[in-house]
Amino acid sequence: MKSIRRDSGGLAADPAKTASIAPGKADLILHEGIVLGHPGSDSVAIAGGRIAAHGKFSGLKALVGPRTFMLKLAGRTVAPGFIDSHLHFLEAAAAATGISVQRCHNVADLLAELRLATGRVPPGNWLRAFGCDETLLFERRGPTRAELDEALPKNPLRLRHQTLHASWLNSRAITLLGLESADFKPPSSAAIIQRDGNGRLTGLVAGMEAWLTSRLPPVTHAEAESRARVMSRELAAAGVTAFTDATARNSSAEVGLFAKLAQAGAICQRLKVMIGERHIGSADEADALAQAAGIELAGVKFIPGQGRDQNEISHHTGLAMERGLDCAFHATEVEELEQALTAAEAARANASGSRGNPRFRIEHGGVIPPDDIARLAALQAWVVTNPGFIHFRGPKYASEPGLLAHLYRARSLKTAGINLAGATDAPVTPARPLAAIAAAISRASFDGELLGREEALPVADAVGLFTVEAARLARLEAGAIEPGLLADLIVLPRDPYQLNAAELMNMIVDITIVGGRVVYEHGRPALANSDTAELRNV
Ligand SMILES: [Zn+2]
Q1: Rounded to whole angstroms, what are the CA distances from 65 to 13, 26, 33?
Q2: Are 165 and 171 in contact (CB under 8 A)?
Q3: How far is the CA of 248 from the centre of ligand 1 (A)?
Q4: What pTM, to 2 d.p., does this model score?
Q5: CA 354/CA 358 separation, integer angstroms
């Protein structure tokens, strides 16, 4: 992340502001409130982008200089900023600024939404929509090709699945992509092109998302940047001060794009980027691009599963380890977890030495059978869990009662000593850590079903998934309020440790601070990305 090295001032390295600060004085003091994790303190002083001190306000007055901003908490709580360990920034940005059908609960509503959207796209142009999940629709099915053709006769359509692992296409899209031409070859063995009983394409394709993206008209840089500004602001409003992009499609091209976005100030959070397993050969190039922009490679993202060759995954895992790169395995299903653990165990056994101390990460850990817990422990693996899935995608799991005991484990993993961090996986669930934290406590789905109650976490552990533990995973000097750590902080209207899950779920974030700089203040939406933002004394 941006200033993981001690010598870099991170986002607070704003020479105009820091140079004028009198030595020994604070840039900013948040005073007279609750300091999360420190019952004896009521104020926090920040200098040079880092936490200088915390304590009683009376004890910090010596740090007040003529240019120190004073921010009165007035009983509010200052907490560590949230670190989202796994999201898909560009996809989330596209979803946040584009056409989303996430709120539709049945096929008719979904088609109506798409029909409405065609009014905004000239005939013949691609319509890109996001957020369909057949398991969450009333009919328990996605739209048919005929329904999509009827709703969108004039535009080719790509409707992405909520999980980002599949897409629905209408006939215009199928024709443009050549999927029905005699010489069409699927881009990889993992591609699934669904056909009906007569052998005709249904419009649903899976496992070829990167290929589809490469075939659609490219997004201009200007468009990518304006989307990024909107998404970064959304994240700031949710209290996110750092995140890792875990997109398997990422190659050095995407790392280059992130580098440009970070340099342009379009992303105000600290940022780490994974690259996809297929692009492991260009890891050095991606690393150079990242470093030049002050961002970091977060490791390699693997997608195990049907059609994947175990030897290939194991081999690539070994290569990533040799380079000192963390290996992050997507694993929502038992089979995926099995492939991931096998690859990690093989790489560990064959390791002839690796740079640094690369880690194994299980992303999601949707279903973890009891026998695999010891294997995770032996590998000192991390599980990056998504408690938000319980809330936002609950009905999908409630229909598979056999899996419930192993579903998005949290407490049992913690008890077994497994490293556990949290993530929203946005845009798969909303980029709101507080909602995920609430779900980790309540284990309640949005329709009131309790799923795996025994896996519920106490509030401090739930908050820790997105703060102290996430910082440890990202090797980021943040995630807690301690002198010397990065001043990545949020101000909340109430003390989260005193709230129940429903109150946490609905709590807004008042102020978000990255590297000592206020990037968001509730009610001032333009602040996040403004270069000229000045702190308003409250
Ligand atoms: Zn993901």
Answers
A1: 19, 7, 21
A2: no
A3: 8
A4: 0.88
A5: 8
CA distance readout (Å), 214 to 257, 286, 371: 15, 19, 40
Strands 43-47 and 28-31: antiparallel
The residue to which tokens 């990024």 are assigned:
228
Ligand 1 centroid from CA 454, angstroms: 25
Distance 184 CA to ligand 1 centre (A): 29
pLDDT in tens, 458-468: 999 999 999 99
Q: Which CATH architecture has domain 1-81+478-538?
A: Roll (2.30)
Predicted confidence band of residue 527 (pLDDT cuts 50, 70, 90): low
| pLDDT tens figures, 134-172 | 988 999 999 999 999 999 999 999 999 988 889 999 999
Q: How many angstroms separate the alpha carbon of residue 425 from the centre of ligand 1?
A: 5
What is the average pLDDT across 315-334? 94
Beta bridge mates, 362: 329, 383
The fold of 221-477 is TIM Barrel (3.20.20)
Q: Is the pLDDT of residue 12 over 50?
A: no
Amino acid at 506: N
For residue 23, the model assigns a pLDDT of: 65
Burial letters 2-28, b for 16+ CB under 10 A, else e = bbbeeeebbbbbeeebeeebeeebbbb
Token pair belonging to 359: 């880690």
Distance CA 473, CA 274 (A): 14
- Return the number of other C-beta atoms located less than 10 Å from residue 309's C-beta: 10
pLDDT in tens, 198-233: 999 999 999 999 899 999 998 899 999 999 999 999
Residue spans of the domains in the chain: they are 1-81+478-538, 103-161+166-206, 221-477
Name the amino acid, one letter, at 37: G
